[in-house]
Amino acid sequence: MTRSAAGYDLTPPTEAERDALEAALSPEEKRVLLAHGTEAPFCGTLLGEKRAGVFCCRQCGLPLFRSATKFESGTGWPSFTQPVDPAHVRPVRDASYGMIRIETRCARCDSHQGHVFPDGPPPTGDRYCINSVALSFVPEGEALPDPLGRGDGAA
After folding, report:
1. Contact (CB, 8 A) for 41 and 75
2. 127: part of which helix (H) or strand (E)?
3. What whole-number distance in Å separates Cα of residue 78 and Cα of residue 44?
4. Considering Cα of 10, then 11, then 15, then 21, what sign does the dihedral take?
5. Which residues contact 114 (CB under 8 A, 6 or more apart)?
């Protein structure tokens, strides 16, 4: 088992677990998370989410971003300055559409989340531009989603 510094199990799902996780996704979630799609700007349900809490991977439940790092970027997608733990978000070079970008994927289940750009505010200067449909929001104090039964904790 591989654990992040934040204490979360980063072991990838087994084939059977992955099949179960993918079966629970809506067609739009599958298009974004599995086929590396992008939702339309200004349409995501989490764009205006301002409550204290944690944004988790919609597929496997791994906590990816805290609400304290969310900011209004004006781009039409939820934006964050940094992940809960750097080990939770895996950067992947993306050369699609004639440009070079850094795709962000969940480090546990490898689902597509969005991209990170070097034009964010202090303290990091990073802007993690993430699809709402790729995330689930958990208000502070509530149990985190645990579809893999790993018992990783609460927001």
Report:
1. yes
2. strand 127-130
3. 8
4. negative
5. 38, 77, 103, 104, 128, 129, 130, 131, 134
Q: Which helix (H) or strand (E) holds 17?
A: helix 15-23
pTM above 0.85, yes or no: yes
Residues 22-46 have pLDDT tens digits of 999 999 999 999 999 999 999 999 9
Active site (annotated) includes residue 129: yes
Kindly list the distances between the CA atom of residue 55 and the CA atoms of 26, 83, 93, 110, in Å, as whole numbers in the listed order.
18, 10, 23, 16
Choice among 60, 106, 109, 129 that is catalytic:
129
Q: What is the pLDDT of residues 128-140, one digit of tens each?
A: 999 999 999 999 9
Secondary structure (3-state) at 15:
helix
